[in-house]
Amino acid sequence: EVQLLESGGGLVQPGGSLRLSCAASGFIFSSYAMSWVRQAPGKGLEWVSAISGSAASAYYADSVKGRFTVSRDNSKNTLYLQMSSLRAEDTAVYYCAKGRGETSGCSNYWGQGTLVTVSS
Amino acid sequence: DIQMTQSPSSLSASVGDRVTITCRASQGISNYLAWYQQKPGKVPKLLIYAASTLQSGVPSRFSGSGSGTDFTLTISSLQPEDVATYYCQKYNSDLFTFGPGTKVDIK
After folding, report:
1. B53: three-class secondary structure by DSSP
2. Cβ contact A59–B94 (<8 Å)
3. Exposed/middle/buried for B103, CB within 10 Å: 0-12, 13-18, 19+?
4. Model confidence pLDDT, tens digit, residues A37-80
5. A95 touches chain B (CB under 8 A)
């Protein structure tokens, strides 16, 4: 059974940093792309970032480019999102999601999400 | 960047009605289009990928069509459990943008 468990969310001040983690199990982690998708309170889904299974390629939405860094440790079956220079508009539930293939941005499994609140 | 739009933004229909949601890409994306369902308070769920392929376990009343820039999600007979917001997502190239969503409820 595929399981994705996010952690690392919380309250952070504007301009601060936070690192999210997503522990994966139930599939061959290194064979699949992984994505981060966020959802601000009462709003729609916003794709944030994705990384290929081998970590050779990483992609970012324009809204986070230069501030967020996606990475993965295939030996630990864990996905990360390092977030810096955080803004109020980054407040959202952050989901990690498993791609359908090594480079696919289409996600067939999702975690339960972790809430990030950016506020002073 | 390719923009994704959806119409309508919301709709209300009766149980048993045929419901159609449209998604449009500002440039051609071949068939790299997925549809997700998000019920209130729940995690998004993949319904359809490659524009028309039903994800395993999804009821057959859901179907998708289209290619290039224009896509549709159809619910052939709306059920109470289909109350949700539906999102399209493009996944070609390197930006995997979602549409703004279509909220579906029961009349």
Report:
1. strand
2. yes
3. middle
4. 999 999 999 999 999 999 999 999 999 999 999 999 999 999 99
5. yes
